[in-house]
Each structure stands twice: as structure tokens, then as C-alpha cells.
Specification:
This protein has 83 residues and is mainly α. The chain has one domain. Helices cover 34% and strands 0% of the residues. One of its GO terms (molecular function) is zinc ion binding.
Length: 83
């Protein structure tokens, strides 16, 4: 089975993938399943791309693939959560 973890807020309350992964972890715990961080990260990236059969275009940082991400440098970015 192909599976991914994602959110368009239609099924959740946040755009934050970290919060979505945290909620997936909690749901797993209720079902006596321990979702490992590496497994959750996979399902949110390449696993999601494979679930949509788009792994040749998205899902990781390989050259030539599309990606949408932000890089934060805590040394120059004022951010209380980064401290």
C-alpha cells in the first residue's frame, strides 16, 4: 500500500507539517502503534510523493526535482522558537 502524510487543512487544523506529524504519532499511539520519527518524515516527503505516483518529480532534494521549502539561519533570523 502506498501511504503519505499531509495536510491541506481540510482534515486538520494547521498548515504545520510538524504538528500534523505529531497528531499522526498520537493517533498511532491510540492504536498501540509507535510511529518512528524517520518513518513519519518519510511519509511526509517521499512516501507522499510515491502515494501520488509523483516520486520522479517531487519527494526529496535530488537535483532536477521540484521542491518547496524554507531555510532558516538562526544566526540572522529573529525567531523566539529558534532560540
Amino acid at each position: 500500500m502506498r501511504m503519505g502524510i499531509g495536510s491541506d487543512v481540510g482534515a486538520g487544523t494547521t498548515f504545520s507539517m510538524l504538528r500534523t506529524l505529531g497528531e499522526a504519532y498520537k493517533v498511532g499511539q491510540l492504536q498501540s502503534y509507535r510511529l518512528r520519527a524517520s518513518e513519519a518524515f518519510y511519509h511526509a516527503t517521499l512516501g507522499g510523493a510515491r502515494a501520488l505516483r509523483l516520486e520522479e518529480k517531487i519527494g526529496n532534494f535530488q537535483p532536477g526535482k521540484e521542491a518547496d521549502f524554507v531555510v532558516i539561519d538562526p544566526a540572522v533570523t529573529r525567531c523566539s522558537a529558534c532560540a
